[in-house]
């Protein structure tokens, strides 16, 4: 126990932005690895969106998507992170390119015909950042200009 405490003291505290970016990276890895059970941890217990009244329905849709597509590769660009309520909630805009092959750069993305979406997310930080609400729409490659 003492070793764990000492190890924790040596680490710098991450900013909320770093935590959110790390969480988004972990979500991408879980989707690409098709870790369906792990995906549950990324959605808040009260998750809902315009197409899914609850977390269970959203997960069912996501699992169906994973079953229909053999290889899923995501390329993400975080456009903005805005905090509210003492950094316990955040609004995040992420551009996500979905493709059947890995996309390593913007240059590669432009040459592929990947599906590009804009996700507007509301995240809550209870014990960890989780998605509480999501809205998404297809977007054109021009929205990548000026991306982070």
How would you describe this protein?
There is one protein chain. It is globular and about 40 Å long. Helices cover 33% and strands 34% of the residues. The chain contains five helices and five strands, in the order H-H-H-E-H-E-E-H-E-E. The chain is of the alpha+beta class. The chain has one domain: Nuclear Transport Factor 2, Chain: A (Roll). Strand 2 and strand 3 form a beta hairpin. The N terminus is likely disordered. The longest helix has 17 residues. A five-stranded mixed sheet has the order 1-5-4-3-2, covered by helices on one side.
SSE inventory with pairings:
Blueprint: H1 2-9, H2 16-32, H3 36-39, E1 43-49, H4 55-68, E2 73-84, E3 89-99, H5 106-111, E4 115-125, E5 129-138
Parallel strand pairs: 1-5
Antiparallel strand pairs: 2-3, 3-4, 4-5
| Alpha-carbon Rg, integer | 17 Å
First CA to last CA: what distance?
40 Å
Q: Order of strands across the biggest sheet? A: 1-5-4-3-2
Biggest sheet layout? 5 strands, mixed
Q: In terms of structural class, how would the helical and strand content be classed? A: alpha+beta
What is the CATH top level name?
Answer: Alpha Beta
* Number of discrete helical segments: 5
**Outline, from the CA principal axes?**
globular
Domain count: the total is 1
For the record, the CATH architecture stands as: Roll
Please provide the count of β strands.
5
Give the H and E element order: HHHEHEEHEE
What share of the residues lie within helices?
25-40%
